[in-house]
Amino acid sequence: MAGIGACSLGTTLMISALLLVGVSPASAQAAKPAPRPAPVRGKSLFARDCAFCHGRDAAGGESGPDLTRSRLVARDVRGDKIQAVVHDGRIEKGMPPFPRLTLPQVNDVIAFIRDQTRNLNSKPGGRRGVDVTDLQTGNSEQGKAYFNGPGKCSSCHSPTGDLAGIATQREGLELEMQMLYPQNTKAKLTVITTSGETFTGTLTYKDEFHIAMTDSEGWYRSWPIRAVEYKIDSRSDAHIEQFEKYTDNDIHNLMAYLQTLR
Ligand code: HEC
Ligand code: HEC
Q1: Residue ranges with strand state E in 95-194
Q2: Ligand 2 within 6 A of 239 CB?
Q3: Same-domain status, 242 and 152
Q4: pLDDT in tens, 192-235
Q5: Are residues 202 and 116 part of one domain?
Q6: Among 45, 105, 109, 140, which residue's beta carbon has the most beta carbons within 10 A?
Q7: Whose CA is nearest to atom 27 of ligand 2?
Q8: Is the torsion defined by CA of 204, 233, 147, 134 positive or negative?
Q9: How far apart are CA 90 and CA 95, in angstroms?
Q10: Which domain holds residue 63?
Q11: Residue 109's domain is classified under what CATH number?
Q12: Number of domains in the chain
């Protein structure tokens, strides 16, 4: 953490120096290397604190369960459920407490576990979550009603359009994860710098210190997040908002419904 903070200060100093010699800050920052992405940071933390029991690949080890098939992990959008387990441990069951890991660190660990889940699921031969049957306990009629009603899913999706055949492309836990927080969606980022310059592009990175985009010409540009104004426009944010509203039943029913889309 301290390292990143120092690095952002360094960047600021470097930019003020460059301003003196008349180089635009945008081009100076475009050359700045990308910060380490969350899954990479999470990997080191995981190797240090968790791999001993959960396996280096998070798929289970000596004494800890496979976290890539954990529903608790899959359903935790903000990291708070996992934070609770990691903070308090489940001492009587062999999971020790890690009271010093911060929420951002836990979120990095989650990013690593999700990356691993995707890697393992995309291996040839296809791997399903263990609890496929659990994913099929819902009522598809009620799921359909939720999709067209309170879930407002039909305002963006169609069972005969973009979601046609979704159940043949993604299975089980992977489909559920994709429904809960779609990956690889391109959010649009607009940044206004202190000098009033506006940049637009695709959001490629954001943490508490930096925000970055790839612009229309393919340049990677990054800014210290506190030094700029920015706006992120992401249609799939609806999913994150929806997360607070789902009951477990809604999720089960939706999954049952989505699995009829073959
Ligand atoms: C000494 C072994 C050990 C270490 C180290 C360990 N765990 Fe665990 N962990 C366990 C065991 C055993 C369980 C199963 C507890 C139970 O049955 O409820 C568990 C359960 C969990 C769960 C709940 C899974 C679920 O589906 O309910 C999460 C999340 C988790 N661990 C994350 C972590 C993270 C993150 C780290 C590193 C910061 C870590 N663990 C380090 C042994 C360990
Ligand atoms: C405001 C628009 C919006 C709403 C409302 C919305 N979604 Fe999405 N959804 C998206 C976007 C955007 C994506 C990413 C698709 C992409 O990038 O191709 C997505 C992705 C998905 C995916 C993954 C599709 C794939 O090809 O992997 C599923 C499944 C899904 N949504 C289901 C739902 C369900 C169920 C609801 C209702 C609870 C819902 N969505 C509500 C915009 C929305």
Answers
A1: 188-192
A2: yes
A3: yes
A4: 999 999 999 988 888 888 888 888 888 888 999 999 999 988 77
A5: no
A6: 109
A7: 178
A8: positive
A9: 5
A10: 38-121
A11: 1.10.760.10
A12: 3
Say whether both 46 and 85 belong to one domain.
yes
pLDDT digits (tens, 9 = 90+) for 79-98: 778 888 998 999 888 888 88
Within-domain flag for 126:
no
pLDDT by residue (tens digit) across 130-156?
A: 445 555 678 999 999 999 999 999 998
Q: Are residues 142 and 211 in the same domain?
A: no
Tell me: do 117 and 174 sit in the same domain. Answer: no
Counting ligand 1 atoms within 8 A of each CB, the residue from 95, 102, 110 with the most, and so the one to mutate, is 95
Q: Measured in angstroms, how far is the CA atom of residue 33 from the centroid of ligand 2?
A: 32
Q: Which residue type sits at 132?
A: V
Cα dihedral 62, 63, 66, 67 sign: negative
Whether 14 maps to a domain, the answer reads no
The pTM of the full predicted model, rounded to 2 decimals, is 0.53
Q: Which atom of ligand 2 is nearest to the CA of 155?
A: 5
If you take atom 8 of ligand 1, which residue's CA is the nearest one? 95
Same domain, residue pair 114 and 164: no
User: CA-CA distances (angstroms) from residue 61 to 90, 101, 109, 112, 166?
Assistant: 17, 21, 17, 16, 32
CATH number of domain containing 220: 2.30.30
Give 205's strand partners.
212
pLDDT band at 159 (very low <50, low <70, confident <90, very high): very high
**Residue with the two structure tokens 């899913």:** 153
173 and 149 both lie in a single domain: yes
Domain finish residue from 121, 144, 162: 121
Task: Classify the C-alpha dihedral 26-30-31-32 as positive or negative.
Answer: positive
**Relative to the alpha carbon of 247, which ligand is closest?**
2
Ligand 2 pocket residue status of 261, Cβ below 6 Å: no
